[in-house]
Specification:
The chain contains eight helices and eight strands; from the N terminus they run H-E-E-H-H-E-E-E-E-H-H-H-H-E-E-H. The chain is of the alpha+beta class. The chain starts with a helix and ends with a helix.
């Protein structure tokens, strides 16, 4: 069983709960998560709430929220030596209308975890197996369903995850900046994610999480740097919105003239 600390952290930091607060606008659970028609209906409701031009922007945003689940797996593995049950059968997905924004929440039916072996070599084998299971049996079917339902190429969907994981990486370094041992463990586990998983795990020609992060200067705080997003999040397809400052489609000239 999952201990109380992990349960609390998943809810507080990763939008993963066992008990849902509030009434969802729409929900997916079990087989409906990978049913293109059910997913199309879910995305249509999401598109309306975020005032998107079509389903592609809803699908891209959906995947960004799913990045919370991917980040939660990395976190529990590195910090707690444990892997939650993120199988599709254990997962429900809810569209939640909040004050001023819409979010996608993830609910776990049970909070079971698999603990890592104490031996370092055995832990590496365990880690690869847990990552392979999550990305081949949960993330891949979900991405392929999102692509079929929205018409957005599956590579654009996978491309949202490195940005979500980069945000998580920055949070980890800020939160645990004085814990060198944990940061080393986090870096080692991330290398397995990027270099230890074959392309066929994702159904692609290459591992989509093995990317180079490009940095640019912060427009308002000269001492800070910002990571450019891995792919466009399609924010410009929402009513009254434009490209993000960190959009990879923008060049230096466009950023110099950028307005929120």
């Amino acid at each position: 069983m999952m201990n109380d600390r992990i349960r609390e952290e998943l809810g507080k930091h990763f939008n993963l709960v066992q008990e849902l607060n509030g009434v969802p606008v729409a929900s997916l659970c079990g087989e409906s998560i990978v049913d293109p028609e059910a997913m199309r209906s879910f995305l249509s409701a999401y598109q309306q709430l975020i005032e998107g031009q079509d389903l592609t922007v809803a699908a891209a945003y959906f995947t960004s929220w799913f990045g919370d689940v991917a980040a939660a797996l990395q976190y529990t593995i590195s910090v707690h030596d444990a892997a939650p049950n993120f199988s599709l059968a254990n997962l429900s997905i809810h569209l939640m209308k909040e004050t001023g924004y819409t979010r996608i929440a993830f609910q776990l039916e049970n909070m079971d975890v698999t603990l890592a072996p104490k031996d370092s070599e055995e832990r590496t084998v365990w880690l690869e197996a847990e990552l392979r299971r999550f990305y081949s049996q949960t993330a891949r079917p979900l991405m392929e369903c999102l692509s079929k339902a929205s018409g957005l190429h599956v590579s654009m969907l996978w491309g949202q995850l490195p940005t979500a994981l980069q945000n998580y990486r920055e949070n980890i370094h800020n939160t645990y900046q004085d814990d060198e041992a944990l940061l080393r463990q986090f870096a080692a586990d991330e290398l397995v994610l990027q270099n230890g998983l074959e392309a066929d795990v994702f159904g692609l020609a290459k591992n989509p999480l093995r990317v180079r992060v490009r940095m640019i200067d912060h427009p308002l705080e000269p001492t800070k740097r910002l990571a450019i997003k891995n792919v466009c999040c399609l924010q410009y397809l929402r009513q009254g919105r434009s490209y993000c400052y960190t959009c990879p489609r923008l060049g230096k000239k466009e950023r110099a003239n950028w307005k929120p």
